[in-house]
Amino acid sequence: PAAAAPVPDPAPAPRTGPSGNAPPPEVGALLQWLVETFEIDSVVEVGAAGGETAAWLLPALPSGGVLTSLEADERAHRVATETVATVEHQARVRNIHGDAATVLPRLSDDHYDLVLLQTGPGETDTVLEHAHRLLRVGGLLVLRDTSTTGGHVGPLVRALQELPTFRPLILPMSEVVAVAVRLAPEPAND
Fold first, then answer.
1. How many contiguous H segments (helices) and E segments (strands) does the chain have?
2. Rounded to whole angstroms, how far apart are CA atoms 114 and 136?
3. How confident is the model at residue 11 (pLDDT cuts 50, 70, 90)?
4. Measured between alpha carbons, how far is 178 from 183 in angstroms, rounded to an integer?
5. What is the secondary structure of 37-98 as a DSSP string?
6. β-pairing, 42-46 with 112-117?
7. In the beta sheet, which residues pair with residue 33?
8. How far is CA 62 from each of CA 1, 41, 80, rounded to the nearest angstrom?
């Protein structure tokens, strides 16, 4: 019989920060499971969630794994940086203060195993285009719906579902989470 998957270590209790979008425990456990199961080494998150997603991701990353965390809001970036400083393996986090449209173009193509999007409505097209570029084939894209009114994630999930280079799965948890695999491009027919 196959070995049972390890039980994810619990992350520190969520703190309330200016971002107000700390993941609930089941989402944090899902993130840990994805990192461990798919042997994720390199993660980029857009929207730092007060450092709480980093607290879930870091224990699951292998010893050489790196998390690049982008946060546009200065106060939220500071809170995330302070939270990450209390977590084991914080040296493997690159905390970057800046908006996605400015920072994402500077990151390497086909380099990341996981892209976690926790952004606002204005970045829909930009972040999906960059997620596609940044992810290696077989890499995972995770979208978190942190709105209770269905605001920005509805269009983002719909846009993701229309992209032929991703195969998404929508998970209705205490918040909506979409997990998508980046597919290889279709060969050109001549």
1. 6, 7
2. 9
3. very low
4. 15
5. HTT--EEEEES-GGGHHHHHHGGGS-TT-EEEEEE-SHHHHHHHHHHHTTSTTGGGEEEEES
6. parallel
7. none
8. 25, 6, 21
3 state DSSP class of 28: helix
DSSP state of 106: G
Predicted pLDDT at 18: 40
Least confident of 50-59, 106-115, 156-165: 156-165
So what's the pLDDT on residue 120? Answer: 63
Are 70 and 102 in contact, with CB atoms under 8 Å apart?
no
Question: Does the pLDDT value for residue 173 go beyond 60?
Answer: yes
Structure-token pair, residue 188 = 């050109």
The percent of residues in the chain predicted with pLDDT above 90, rounded, is: 55
The vertex-45 CA angle with 112 and 34, nearest 5°, equals 65
Q: Which residues, including other chains, have CB under 8 Å from residue 31's CB and lie 6 or more apart? A: 23, 53, 56, 57, 60, 116, 142
Question: Which residue reads 């918040």 in tokens?
Answer: 175
Question: Which pLDDT score is estimated for 43?
Answer: 98
